[in-house]
Amino acid sequence: KPLLLVNAYTCDSCGNEIFQEVAQKTFTPLSSCPSDTCKTNQTNGRLHMQTRASRFQPFQEVKIQEMADQVPVGHIPRSMTIHLYGTLTRSVNPGDVVHLSGIFLPTPYTGFRAMRAGLLQDTFLESMHVHQLKKQYHAMEVTPEIEEAIEDLKQDQNLYSRLANSIAPEIYGHEDVKKALLLLLVGGVTKTVGDGMKIRGDINVCLMG
Predict the structure, then answer these.
(1) What's the pTM?
(2) Which residue among 51, 83, 84, 102 is least packed, with the fewest CB closer than 10 Å?
């Protein structure tokens, strides 16, 4: 979502444009015109916000969590709030495994909440760099070794069971359930009937018990 950096106003009395710099998440909009023209004429001109003349910056707030294999036994995975600005927005999606570098900052409180918090502060990381550890399919480079491995898998008569057993390998058995989940992940082919009706290839899986 856009983050407001400079808020622009137009005075209905003198017609001047007034700009207000916004440095925090919350701000108090200007109501009366502070221009010299209104002061000279002793008129209390009303200001109207102008979105077109305002300045915005792309902003995204995400929450990251520790990997399950890195959490000590008996502990809960820790989480952290990350702020992304500019070109870094939309670079992180749910399920991604990333390395982040940035500045660790406190979240300032205002008003009554600041009085109650005292010396306690919430914190966040203002990210400066995002490194993706899991590549998307379109970003992967197919090497000759990968092509050879795919060709070997094509010749495997037990490929269906091997792929199913690779799902949740720490859970023993339940091969039928794993095969159903495999079909759900892979999906099917969307078919278009002669009258134009589409039949989706994805299946629904309901696990009970």
Answers:
(1) 0.59
(2) 51
Mention the CATH class of domain 2-58. Answer: mainly beta
Assign a CATH topology to domain 60-132.
OB fold (Dihydrolipoamide Acetyltransferase, E2P) (2.40.50)
Torsion of CA 166, 168, 171, 174, to 10 degrees: -70
- Residue 105 C-beta-side C-alpha neighbours within 13 Å: 12
Q: What residues pair up with 102 in beta bridges, in sequence order? A: 127
Q: Do the strands 122-132 and 79-85 form a parallel or antiparallel pair, or are they unpaired?
A: parallel
Written as tens digits, the pLDDT of the chain (209 aa) is: 788 889 898 888 888 888 888 887 778 888 888 888 888 888 888 888 888 888 899 999 999 998 887 888 888 888 999 999 989 998 888 888 898 999 998 887 766 666 676 677 788 999 999 988 876 666 677 888 888 888 888 888 888 888 888 888 778 888 888 888 888 888 778 888 888 788 887 788 888 87
Q: Where are the domains of the chain?
A: 2-58, 60-132, 141-199
In whole angstroms, what is the distance from residue 117 CA to residue 120 CA?
Answer: 5
Distance CA 45, CA 22 (A): 22
Q: How many CB atoms lie within 10 A of CB 7?
A: 21
